Automatic annotation (TrEMBL):
EC number(s) on file: 4.2.2.-
UniProt-listed Pfam families: DPBB_1 (PF03330)
Domain of life: Bacteria
Identification of the protein by name: Probable endolytic peptidoglycan transglycosylase RlpA
Species whose genome carries this gene: Geobacter benzoatilyticus
């Protein structure tokens, strides 16, 4: 009988501790989320005032040659096109390579998977003009020139 009440007290204490620690961490998580949101807003405002957003660029693999893109057209590695997760199809975008200050204007014709940071996937011709064709990825500034054409 004594062991049953002891187990009951222990169970109540464990439940109380778990509830108490969750309550304590919720306020810390809320503060962290609020701080992250304010820093993201400040960063996006600074990037917009500065002309575009910083992000990462890569280029299409050779296996995508001739495949249909989201716009319905076939991918041609010689065209200056790009894929972006959120920009409207048909949008003209200037992409500036931050390593060498080369720039190219591309049209968004496809979608790429969403990532945590800003990201653009360029055609091989655009990657060649930016000077990172053999490297795979590079840091770029993405500047929207106009809204969707269509």
């Amino acid at each position: 009988m004594v062991s049953v009440t002891r187990k009951g007290r222990l169970a109540i204490m464990v439940i109380f501790c778990q509830a108490f620690f969750q309550i304590q961490t919720l306020s810390l998580q809320a503060e962290e989320i609020a701080a992250k949101a304010t820093t993201e807003k400040a960063a996006s405002a600074a990037e917009k005032a500065d002309g575009g957003v910083k992000g990462t660029a890569s280029y299409y693999a050779k296996r995508y040659n001739g495949r249909r893109m989201t716009s319905g057209k076939r991918y041609d590695p010689k065209q200056l096109t790009a894929a972006h997760p959120t920009l409207p199809l048909g949008t003209k975008v200037k992409v500036v390579n931050l390593a060498n200050n080369r720039e190219v204007t591309v049209t968004i014709t496809d979608r790429c998977r969403k990532r945590v940071s800003h990201f653009i996937d360029l055609s091989r011709a655009a990657a060649r003009k930016l000077g990172f064709l053999g490297k795979g990825v590079t840091e770029v500034r993405i500047i929207t020139l106009d809204e969707a054409v269509s």
